[in-house]
Amino acid sequence: MDFRNAWAIAVKDMREVFSSVSIYGPMLAVPLFFAIVLPVLTFYVTIYAAPSVIARISSLPSAPPILQGANAATFMRYFAINVLGPIFLTMPILTSSVISADSFAGEKERKTAEALLATPVKKSELLLGKIMASFIPTIILTVAVFAIYGVVTNAFAMGSFHEYILPTAAWLMMILTSPFLAIVTIGIVVLVSSHVRGVKESQQISTLIILPVLIMPFISILGLASLTVAFFAYVILILAAMALVLFYVSIRTFRKDRML
Amino acid sequence: MRESILLKGVYKRFGKVSALDGVDLSLKKGMSIILGANGAGKSTLLRCIDGLYKVDSGTVKVDGIDPYTDDTVHMKLALLSDNYALYDYLSVKDNLKFFGRLYGLKDSEILERASEVLKELDAYNYIDSKVFTLSRGTKQKVAFCRATINNPSIILLDEPTAFLDANASERIRKYLLRREREGATVLFVTQKIDEVTRFNSKIFVIKKGRIVASADSASLYKSILKNSYINVRLARQISSAKLSKVTGLESTNGSKATYIKVRISSSKDINAVIRELLDAGAEIAGVDYTEPLIEKMSLNGEE
């Protein structure tokens, strides 16, 4: 495999995505909006509603022990990780699914695959190039969003509680989960893209991947699971195993003519 | 000399539709043309030769290599498909640099070759333009440049002049003839008989996924001109009375004619008609024939 070919494909795809603000604008705007607005909302919930929210959650039979008699700073730390964290974890899924769907199914939809496949590029180079084209912007965007979210949250926390509440080990593990979520999403889109006609069908699959992530805040509030370092370590292991299986199947089943 | 392109008993189906139905084809260096109507299987045939499609059964070899399983063959193979297949949001230069890099070319080599071809096709001015801003004809010129950026020894073309003006079409033909003289294998498919007859090449007729006849320009003309018409343009008006002696005269565009339609059955009839017109005092500006539908055309030896 010639890595230069894979890199040329990745660069071409990234240049296409970032060549028009109408393509990358919405993809960047929504995560950046949430990165600022959600911590602000968290702060106001903490300031004005923390006691009543803590009381309600604590009344649940399986309420998380950490909230028993928690103060506002503890509540904000809990909320920032257990409730907002999973929402931010949807960013790598959404971003990677949008780019990878465009990267694979887009070639088919715009009928550019024929010229690409007529070059000496190998199947492995093509797959690696397309994966990098989706993975690199996703990780840059995700880290940027988590960083903004951390800075905004800390700014409010410092102002009100005179302490920084982020990062915590669990929060860092959450960031570490992002690349694995992105890679599993890309793997699924790669598998699906060769069987669908266009970008829209290919993107639909991302909704299925987002659902388990969006359940996380509820299972956390209900005390069914705690989003701890160990929890994310298990999630990373499961995602890594899924990614290996997905890419093995993708490479084995990928057929050039399905891109046409 | 080994065949550049060899197909033996090639079948390709899409669902219930049989696109190629037992194609046998053996091509050595030089130019060959596949003539066929829409849906005859021309594009599928090219895609099988290029290794884009896996054939259902049969053998495809390009320079002795299976193009579907061995990508190295693409180093010397080029395909210009009927859609321009360029990245709309990239510039012409970036498109060509991208494809050239996949052939292992340096940027300086890519730009040198691109400028040579684009200048030859009168499209160099657009090198920094985004592809979506270009006209369809210019896109086709750029696509031609992309397809030949690796200086291929085997060139496959699907309707290469479909959206080009006469001048650009002629430049593409000149380029292909030059590459033929340099020893390349050129195979292009078309549905235009006029295009075919501009080359003195081996012609294969494809119908319903089968190669049904092979021909040359002479036998093709024989078939085209059988029970056909020619249209003669006259440089100045001539009275209908003077045209009455023209054999096979079908119609004129008025009592003072500048355009006449004549029934013919062979190339000899065309010469006879021209002599009669000259004898009648006509000044001929041009002669063209009415192309028959390929589906209805029958060549000697057709299966």
Give an overview of the whole structure.
Chain A has helices spanning 3-17, 21-58, 72-109, 113-117, 123-161, 169-193, 199-221, 229-253. In chain A, 45% of the residues are buried. In chain A, α2 runs antiparallel to α3 and α3 packs antiparallel against α5 (123-161). Chain A has one domain (3-259). Chain A has 260 residues and is an all-alpha fold. Chain B has 2 domains: 5-222, Rossmann fold, CATH 3.40.50.300; 227-296, Lrp/AsnC effector binding domain/regulation of amino acid metabolism (RAM) domain (Alpha-Beta Plaits, 2-Layer Sandwich). Chain B starts with a strand and ends in a 14-residue tail after the last strand. Chain B contains 9 helices and 13 strands. Classes of the chains: A mainly alpha (260), B alpha/beta (303). The interface between A and B is medium-sized, with 28 and 34 residues.
CATH top level label of the largest domain in chain B? Alpha Beta
Strand count, sense and closure of the main sheet of chain A? none
Identify low-pLDDT runs of chain A: none
DSSP summary, beta strand count of chain B: 13
For this structure, the CATH topology of the largest domain in chain B is Rossmann fold
The percentage helix of chain A is: over 70%
Topology readout:
The complex is a heterodimer of chains A (260) and B (303).
Chain A: H1 3-17, H2 21-58, H3 72-109, H4 113-117, H5 123-161, H6 169-193, H7 199-221, H8 229-253
Chain B: E1 5-14, E2 17-27, E3 30-36, H1 42-49, E4 57-62, E5 77-80, H2 92-102, H3 107-120, H4 136-147, E6 154-158, H5 166-181, E7 185-190, H6 193-196, E8 202-207, E9 210-215, H7 217-224, E10 228-239, H8 240-243, E11 249-252, E12 256-264, H9 267-279, E13 284-289
Parallel strand pairs in B: 3-7, 3-8, 5-6, 6-7
Antiparallel strand pairs in B: 1-2, 1-4, 8-9, 10-12, 10-13, 11-12
Helix pairs in contact in B: 2-3, 3-4
In short:
The complex is a heterodimer of chains A (260) and B (303). Chain A contains 8 helices and no strands.
